[in-house]
UniProtKB/TrEMBL annotation:
<dbReference type="GO" id="GO:0003677">
    <property type="term" value="F:DNA binding"/>
</dbReference>
<dbReference type="Pfam" id="PF22022">
    <property type="entry name" value="Phage_int_M"/>
</dbReference>
<comment type="similarity">
    <text>Belongs to the 'phage' integrase family.</text>
</comment>
<dbReference type="InterPro" id="IPR053876">
    <property type="entry name" value="Phage_int_M"/>
</dbReference>
<keyword id="KW-0229">DNA integration</keyword>
<dbReference type="InterPro" id="IPR025166">
    <property type="entry name" value="Integrase_DNA_bind_dom"/>
</dbReference>
<dbReference type="GO" id="GO:0006310">
    <property type="term" value="P:DNA recombination"/>
</dbReference>
<keyword id="KW-0238">DNA-binding</keyword>
<dbReference type="InterPro" id="IPR050808">
    <property type="entry name" value="Phage_Integrase"/>
</dbReference>
<dbReference type="InterPro" id="IPR011010">
    <property type="entry name" value="DNA_brk_join_enz"/>
</dbReference>
<dbReference type="Pfam" id="PF13356">
    <property type="entry name" value="Arm-DNA-bind_3"/>
</dbReference>
<dbReference type="InterPro" id="IPR010998">
    <property type="entry name" value="Integrase_recombinase_N"/>
</dbReference>
<keyword id="KW-0233">DNA recombination</keyword>
<dbReference type="InterPro" id="IPR002104">
    <property type="entry name" value="Integrase_catalytic"/>
</dbReference>
<feature type="domain" description="Tyr recombinase">
    <location>
        <begin position="202"/>
        <end position="377"/>
    </location>
</feature>
<dbReference type="InterPro" id="IPR038488">
    <property type="entry name" value="Integrase_DNA-bd_sf"/>
</dbReference>
<dbReference type="Pfam" id="PF00589">
    <property type="entry name" value="Phage_integrase"/>
</dbReference>
Amino acid sequence: MPRPLYKLTAVAVKNAPPGKYSDGGGLWLHKREDGGAQWILRVNVHGRRREMGLGSVSEVSLKEAREAAERWRSLVRGGLDPIKERQRQRREAARNLHCLDDIARDAFESRKAELKGDGVAGRWFSPLEIHVLPRLGKVPVVDIDQTDIRDVLAPIWHSKAETARKALNRLAICLKHAAALGLSVDLQATDKARALLGKQRHKPENIPAMPWRDVPIFYASLSDGTVTHLALRLLILTGVRSAPLRFLREEQINGDVWTIPGEAMKGRRGATADFRVPLSDAALEVIEQARRHAREGFLFPSVKKGVISDATMSRLMERAGMAARPHGFRSSLRDWIAEVTEASHDVAETTLGHIIGGAVERAYRRTDFLEQRRALMVRWARHVTGQRGQVIALGKRSRNDA
């Protein structure tokens, strides 16, 4: 015979002395000596008695307790353990509460090993941190859809096209990361957002470069021996990209050759071949001066921690009223090579660390033109430091043999 339900009344619940009182159907009121009271549901699951708390009487009314008891009893009738089911629901809810900020930072941490310098420079994360997370960071990642992404990227989709593209790609990675964690996200949200945003009108512009004839004057102004001045001087003298220079370590220098690890070279991800940079006397002198600033093995440390940023060097040129930027000195060097020397295309491109030819051609060509590049960089250093830059021929007789 079924047990009668609804034995208690709201008044009885309020005035009952300490003890245990049945409302029927396994729902019990437990009043303690200390004045507290709670609801308990007793059920039998697979022949085992289970007790689960339904909350404090001060927070859960008699009506709410009866409704909750019925929900859990219905699960029992379906053969489920209500306690385990509640635990599962809580775990699911906790997973679904992961906000985009948490997912993005976790995704970044898991990919640091793939990034240059373990992502210390922040370039992988900055498109998200600057343009996405301020608006979507606190949103549960499972709730993010294509319209959210479109709305947050629309303001920069055309004006900062490359940054917007990177932010969209990083978001796609974050969504995949969330899916790998077991979250129910829309993996097509970024593709849908791209369709909503439309084709970008922005055309990439080349980084402003200083004419090679003006470089000696600027080089001479970098004379105070600070980390930033020395870094810019070595950047100019070697023609390397900013990242390898900023992360230059003492052990990478061997005599008059600087060996940059292959994985630190742009466009050589996964490569095992290192890149050798011949160092002129002027470059070696800059390195010697930089050694007094070295910290934790880095020759160009920042004031607080890590190494100086690319922005540090850019700001120096910006404050001086220049349109040119540090990366542009590679163009200055390339133009000088083309206009002043007769260096071959392969030597000129190798000087800038560019990959030349197809895979088959590279497999047969084993030289990195180190000695020819050394002569070229000596002449570049003479020009940069204010000495006369002579026309030279590399691989053939010079017009003006020095």
